[in-house]
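thought: user wants a sequence for this fold. calling inverse folding tool.
action: design(structure=
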């Protein structure tokens, strides 16, 4: 089987594993009260809780990475020309939502990094001009309900949205038994060999806190540019250029194609800077 045929099937197998492990964790997790303490209990006291958390983490990450590679292949080979604009919009939107699923999962860790990421998102939304405060409150809120809305999005709304948007793609790329067994084996091995990282307690005093790996470039930009530019305008331009690819003329499409490449390489560079340079 070609790698181009393997990746989407491996990704969907990982998605199934992620949803299954998430359903088990759903009954152990609580988005209110001492969230960090509950996560530590799941990891250390619940039988196989640490392994289960790792299974959920690795399966979700591998799903999104596999889907990103699959989408990148379509972009590099300019297969977006074969799609109707509406279908291309659904596929691109589903990938964006997948990253938001990972982001809400990062918040739900309840540690210093998760809380920090949540407040960054909250502050960015509050600083967007003309955006009603009530709209921001639909995603995340200050106070005792800080984790509640990310929990609802992560566990219910976003996974359903991704499945609905990918319905036609899922039928085409359903994994066979061999790929599913390989996916389960690989994820279990990763989960048993690689232990969960040390979580930073919410009240700990630390000099440096990192967001999720895919957010590091934006986190770096936030140090030097206004939130509206670094977290809304620049990512919006990148996603917007990808969305309009099927709509533009073939001759003009080359310019947009290269603009997307430039922005992508630039973001990789900013991600590296965000990971290794001190704030």
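)
observation: tool returned 279 residues.
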């Amino acid at each position: 089987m070609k790698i181009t045929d393997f990746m989407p099937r491996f990704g969907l197998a990982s998605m199934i594993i992620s949803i299954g492990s998430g359903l088990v964790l759903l009954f152990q997790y609580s988005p209110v009260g001492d969230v960090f303490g509950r996560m530590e209990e799941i990891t250390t006291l619940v039988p196989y809780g640490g392994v289960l958390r790792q299974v959920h983490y690795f399966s979700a990450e591998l799903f999104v990475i596999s889907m990103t590679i699959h989408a990148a292949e379509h972009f590099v080979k300019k297969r977006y020309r074969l799609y109707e604009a509406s279908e291309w919009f659904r596929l691109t939107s589903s990938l964006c939502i997948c990253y938001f699923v990972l982001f809400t999962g990062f918040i739900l860790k309840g540690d210093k990094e998760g809380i920090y990421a949540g407040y960054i998102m909250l502050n960015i939304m509050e600083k967007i001009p003309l955006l009603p405060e009530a709209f921001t409150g639909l995603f995340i809120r200050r106070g005792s309900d800080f984790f509640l809305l990310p929990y609802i999005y992560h566990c219910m709304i976003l996974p359903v949205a991704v499945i609905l948007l990918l319905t036609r793609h899922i039928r085409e790329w359903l994994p066979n038994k061999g790929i599913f067994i390989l996916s389960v084996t690989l994820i279990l091995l990763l989960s048993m060999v690689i232990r969960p990282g040390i979580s930073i307690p919410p009240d700990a005093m630390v000099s440096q806190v990192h967001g999720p790996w895919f957010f590091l470039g934006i986190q770096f930009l936030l140090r030097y540019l206004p939130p509206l530019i670094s977290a809304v305008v620049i990512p919006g331009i990148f996603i917007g250029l990808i969305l309009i690819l099927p709509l533009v003329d073939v001759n003009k499409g080359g310019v947009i194609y290269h603009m997307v490449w430039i922005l992508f390489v630039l973001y990789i560079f900013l991600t590296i800077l965000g990971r290794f340079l001190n704030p």
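thought: summarizing for user.
answer: Here is the designed sequence. The chain has two domains: 3-197, 210-279.
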